[in-house]
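Researcher: Please predict.
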Amino acid sequence: MNKADLVALVSARTDLTKADVSTVVDAAIDTIIDSVVEGKKVSILGFGSFERRDRSARQGLNPKTGEKIKIPAKKVPAFTAGKMFKERVQQEGE
């Protein structure tokens, strides 16, 4: 499913126009991204949490040459599914 599919499904469920739903989806995504960039954790009850995590520097291998390389530390986005989300996925998978 891509963004257009999501917008169409939400529009059908809510009787809102696709344009209105698209505006809300864009605003929600932008707000989540901005908050995570600022180092805030965004929790949506029943769905999950978005947060920024620090990945420490480490040593890796160049796959072509096998040479050791330094991989620098960086910040990465992370999502953790909520309990209800996990339970629904588990039920549907059985």
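Model: The chain has three helices and five strands.
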